Amino acid sequence: MKLRIILACLASIYLSGCSGTPENTTAVEPLNDAQATYERARNNIAAGNFSTAAQTLQAMSTRYPFGPLAHQVQLDLIYVYYKLADIDKALAAVDRFSRLNPNHQDIDYVLYMRGLINQRADYNAIQELAGIDRADRDPSKAKEAFNDFAQLLRRFPDSKYAADARQRMVGIKSRLAQYELSVAEYYMKREAYLAAANRGKYVLEYYSDTPEAEKALGIMANSYGRLNLTDLRDSALATLRQNFPDSSYLR
């Protein structure tokens, strides 16, 4: 009787051990599958196949939302959406990652990408290729990009993305100044000279370190002259002469 009990116990232990083996294998398989799938996505990114990469990464995000690759998948999705110029999805991915991982080691990259995405939204490739000057288009996305880069520099001044962000801010300031000057020119055509002068003054106050400062002074001098505000006109001309002695606005 005792022998039967012992044999039964041994059989039970053996069966338990056998049944445990597939469970361990099954636990490893999803990780291997995830890694292989991720490598395919990375290869597609490297090859410039961003649409295919996006589909793969989206599937991974759904299937492995809490896996060891989850954060990297989300970061790659931000980049892929940016390359596809899918602004809404890119910004949604940025906001989601920032909300769920505010202290992540790559949060400076996420901020940087937010700036790039908003800058991309301000850029109209078709108009640029056609050589169409659209300085008068809504600058709201350019302002958002500027603020994104400014936040990056404020929070992470030593980030490896800081130098490029700073350089992009210079270009964005020129873009914003050009918008103000396009409005000033509109006012000039409407003979709303005081409004035109005020736009030029705004450029000098906020974008004086851009090349557009020269044109702003020219518009101010012209506007004040038409309003017979000679002191203000002469002051604008003096500043123009001092900073831009060869300016066409002095002729």
From TrEMBL:
One of its GO terms (cellular component) is Bam protein complex. The keyword Oxidoreductase does not apply. It is found in: Cell outer membrane. The keyword Kinase does not apply. Residues 33-236 form the Outer membrane lipoprotein BamD-like domain. GO terms for biological process: Gram-negative-bacterium-type cell outer membrane assembly; protein insertion into membrane. Keywords: Cell outer membrane, Lipoprotein, Membrane, Palmitate, Signal. Part of the outer membrane protein assembly complex, which is involved in assembly and insertion of beta-barrel proteins into the outer membrane. Part of the Bam complex. This is Outer membrane protein assembly factor BamD. It comes from Pseudidiomarina salinarum. The gene is bamD.
